[in-house]
Automatic annotation (TrEMBL):
GO molecular function per UniProt: hydrolase activity
Protein's name in the database: Calcineurin-like phosphoesterase
SUPFAM superfamilies registered for this protein in UniProt: Metallo-dependent phosphatases (SSF56300)
Organism this protein belongs to: Sphingopyxis flava
Ranges of residues in domain Calcineurin-like phosphoesterase: 10-195
Pfam entry (one): Metallophos
Signal sequence annotation: none
């Protein structure tokens, strides 16, 4: 996603990269690690776009705790890209541990890049050359960030925001009305965080969503660019699946082929024709609310310990 500022500067946005994610489900042993390498190459290419400013829109890392190898790969990619352009990396919810005293991969990356004049690591709301930048902060709501934002003119707001309510904590929903009130009705608003790209209406205003850097599930890839779902008959007619994650719908009695060369192979039993499946939306599931109910009887110390550990291993 690209745009130009009135000052002539060109800007490219990278949707959530989620580097450090492990791709193992359905991946044959001889292709383990291939998807991770492709993901890193994609990130390197996205950083190297021919623009003045490139912005990683949050969730550069998949979790606050990733391997040292992943941290160094990101560091080297950013250092190389920053030779010819400004690189801005916005903190996302996956980058930061809920326990604010914990040091994670994002903080280590920040320390490694400290001193590079062409790199900005954004952990607090920042104004930069017409860009009002809002990172994720676990202890500060999105509305409070806007209210406390330093004075100045901005023509574009960049953030890592929720775009709809999931029935739990709504403190990080994009505060479109507050942003427009602060910076004017002509303000353009862009967000990472939500993995399906597109334009979304939030409180009567449009938010341009980058989506993730690449799809990470079948639900995030409606066009089938990487993830495809096929019947066994459709599968037999395809010869272009080497670089696809394939899910096969199996009817009763059918078996998953064992010799298909693809990035990942999984199966799903097709529902019987007389089975009715109701419509389900993301809003029907709110693990954080369920978790909060279960942890409520515990002491604050125990709750904090459990939440910190869970934040490192679940989305």
């Amino acid at each position: 996603m690209k745009f130009s500022l009135t000052n002539g500067k060109t800007v490219a946005l990278i949707g959530d990269p989620h580097l450090g994610r492990k791709f193992e489900n359905g991946v044959p042993l001889h292709r383990r690690g291939e998807r991770e390498r492709k993901q890193l190459t994609n990130f390197q290419e996205q950083l190297a776009q021919d623009v003045d400013i490139v912005v990683s829109m949050g969730d550069t890392f998949d979790h606050p705790a990733v391997s040292n190898r992943v941290v160094m790969d990101v560091y080297n990619a950013v250092e190389a890209a920053a030779v010819d352009r400004t690189v801005i990396i916005i903190a996302g919810n996956h980058d930061l541990p809920r326990n604010l005293t914990t040091i994670g991969a994002f903080e280590i990356l920040e320390a490694l890049l400290d001193g590079n004049p062409n790199v900005m690591i954004v952990r607090k709301p920042t104004l930069y050359r017409g860009l009002a930048i809002f990172p994720w902060e676990w202890d500060v709501s999105a509305f409070a960030q806007v209210e406390a934002f330093p004075s100045g003119e901005a023509e574009v707001a960049l953030g890592h925001w929720d775009l709809q309510s999931f029935g739990g904590d709504d403190s990080h929903i994009c505060p479109t009305a507050a942003l427009k009130a602060k910076f004017g009705d002509d303000l353009a608003i862009y967000s990472g965080h939500y993995h399906l790209p597109g334009d979304y209406e939030v409180d009567g205003h449009i938010v341009h969503c980058t989506g993730s850097m690449e799809p990470y599930s079948h639900a995030e890839d409606p066009d089938g660019s990487l993830y495809v779902t096929l019947t066994l008959e459709e599968l037999e007619a395809r010869d272009d699946l080497h670089d696809k994650c394939v899910r096969v719908l199996l009817a009763e009695g059918e078996e998953l082929p064992s010799d298909l060369d693809c990035l990942a192979l999984t199966a799903k039993r097709a529902a019987k024709e007389d089975t009715e499946v109701g419509e389900i939306t993301l809003g029907d599931f709110n693990w954080s609310s369920i978790l909060a109910q279960k942890l409520e009887p515990l002491t604050p110390e125990v709750r904090g310990f459990i939440e910190e550990r869970l934040s490192e291993v679940i989305e």
